[in-house]
């Protein structure tokens, strides 16, 4: 899936669901990376200092920060 399509999928999912701080998100990625960044870094498209980072793994991430 192209990068733009992945962004669309995540944005559509987020707009249709209400997430709580006790929820978890399951990332089934084999080739991609996932980063958690601050709002400011997201808005500036900066990923040099992520809060959380993983790649090439099957990962559950709890939304608790």
Automatic annotation (TrEMBL):
One annotated GO molecular function: electron transfer activity
InterPro entries: Cupredoxin, Phytocyanin_dom
SUPFAM superfamilies for the chain: Cupredoxins (SSF49503)
Domain (Phytocyanin) ranges: 8-64
Gene3D superfamilies, alphabetized: Cupredoxins - blue copper proteins
Pfam families to which the protein is assigned, alphabetical: Cu_bind_like
Name of the featured protein: Phytocyanin domain-containing protein
Lineage: Eukaryota, Viridiplantae, Streptophyta, Embryophyta, Tracheophyta
